[in-house]
Amino acid sequence: MTEPLNLLVIRHEPCSSLGMLKTAVKKAALPFRYLDISQGAVLSEPITHYSHIVILGGAISAYEDDRYPFLKTEFKLLETAIAQQIPLLGICLGSQILARVLGADVYRGESGREAGWCDIQLTDAGQQDFLFQGFPTRFKVFESHQDTFALPSQCVHLATSGMYPNQAFRYGNSVWAMQFHLEIDEHVLTDCGAVIEQELEDSQIHDTTLAKLVAEASTNSPLVAPLADRFMQQFLAVSTCQLQPS
């Protein structure tokens, strides 16, 4: 008997959400729950209860596990999920956490904060990747990060940008990580406005504001929405697709 699909969404900021990725989840009538791990929430059931896991972003750093002990719990949880080949998707901080769990360095980038609506370029491998099928080679999405990561060993490099080359990778056929945000639209930006404003202030970015980013989202997010929907549908199909090792 086929096991039912259940989605776990790990978040590090209570304001964050699946955003535009939620459309595909609703279409699939897929039960999901948020795990507010930074607020002390823990799983009462084994990780194998979940067919898919999404790890959202946040303002902390993946290398601050001494300061934020819940990260160590999260690392162990994801190590188990990887070993069980549960499909994983890490976004922004989530991608950095996956990079660290897979043994790569995560560190403060020298190019400063990549903030706002930025151009992403798929690599040749990215254009062939299952989750990016149907994407244009180049597209614009929201970013807000200053940390970056080295590409973990045995991973496939999927996307780059002019500011930070490691924008997405795949490990095996069940783990994907992307530095950029397909989920963010003007609603998610508004919900997490205080976090974004603090990041801009901390990074001493003065050439944009939250209001400007939200206004730009009203133009850009309708273009990203169909890509987010396609990507999430393809991610949710991973468990039923017989993908051959690269």
- The secondary-structure class comes to alpha/beta
Number of helices: 7
CATH class category name: Alpha Beta
Q: Which percent range describes the beta-strand content?
A: 15-25%
- At CATH level 3, the topology is Rossmann fold
CA radius of gyration is: 17 Å
Residue-averaged pLDDT: 93
Order of helices and strands: EHEEHEHEEHEEEEEHHH
Gross geometry = globular
Give a written overview of the molecule.
It is a single chain. By secondary structure, the chain is α/β, with parallel strands linked by helices. It has one domain (7-240): Class I glutamine amidotransferase (GATase) domain (Rossmann fold), CATH 3.40.50. Helix 2 (70-83) crosses helix 3. Residues 240-246 have low confidence and may be disordered. The chain has helices spanning 22-27, 70-83, 93-101, 124-128, 186-191, 193-202, 210-236, and strands at residues 7-11, 32-36, 52-55, 88-91, 106-108, 114-122, 138-145, 147-149, 155-160, 168-171, 175-178. It has a nine-stranded mixed beta sheet. The protein has a two-stranded antiparallel ribbon with strand order 5-8.
